[in-house]
Design goal:
Layout (H helix, E strand, L loop, with lengths): L5 E7 L5 H14 L3 E7 L13 E6 L1 H11 L6 E5 L14 H9 L5 E13 L2 E8 L2 E6 L6 E9 L4 E10 L1 E5 L7 H4 L11 E7 L9 E4 L3 E6 L7 E5 L3 E5 L4 E14 L3 H11 L9
Parallel strand pairs: 1-2, 1-3, 3-4
Antiparallel strand pairs: 5-6, 5-16, 7-10, 7-14, 8-9, 8-13, 10-11, 11-12, 13-16, 14-15
Amino acid sequence: MPEIKRALLIVNLHKINAPILAEEITGELHGRNIEVDSLAYEGISEFKHQVHYDICFSLGGDGTVLYAARTMASQGTPILPVNLGSLGFIAAVQPDEWEEVFDRWLRSDAPISRRLMLEITVERRGQIVARSACLNDSVISASGIAKLIRLQVASEMAFPRDHIRIGHFRSDGLIVATPTGSTAYSVAAGGPILDPEIEAVLINPICPFTLSNRPMVIPAHETITVEVEEEQRSGVLLTVDGQTTEPLEPKDRIFIQKAPYQALLVASDREVFYRVLRSKLNWSGGPDA
């Protein structure tokens, strides 16, 4: 049984019943002699925690879980995602189930889904100008009015050292997604759905000028390098998990690689993923469809 001394609640204030549930969880945890900190999240929060949390409760929808993962995963903190939105692929625990799931987790009886995360580094004229991490995807696209952008994409293996040029893309943008993110923007752009716990990365051009540019799935241990071509004149934007943005310039290089940590999601396992998938895509034919 894990020893729980301190918990963090990330509370999405856009969800009407989030503050009420946060108060309920806080009261119950205090009754168990667990210290509780709360973070009010409204989509643009920045949080630099100075202490270690033994568990994080995400009170919101999938977007709240994405923020929680970027904030807490590097510390190895498990995330219990309570769903206060519509049917989500990641936030799987219903509000009236949180205590039961929490107790099961304490008994090591709740499934833990270990999700691949990506680290993103932006290099400009030899200097690192931005770093981030994502659970869903990184999207490089035109800023402002939609225009074709020009990108060079390559893949690099660490052992043995091998640099492979994938190709030149003229498209509305490029999505680099994790298996978790394969059901987000990427699937709407014609990409495949990946099992959420496999180790792979999806490269998916958005509305490519050349129809032969198709989505690719590559091993997660390879580093993806995207370079904004020097001839690019319109603005280009990097968007991470649909929540943070970074303006890009011609000749910027974006390095996307497997993070040295995973997002640990309590009770949001493969069974939940496929149940939600059947519901959202209206796949019928079985007794539990």
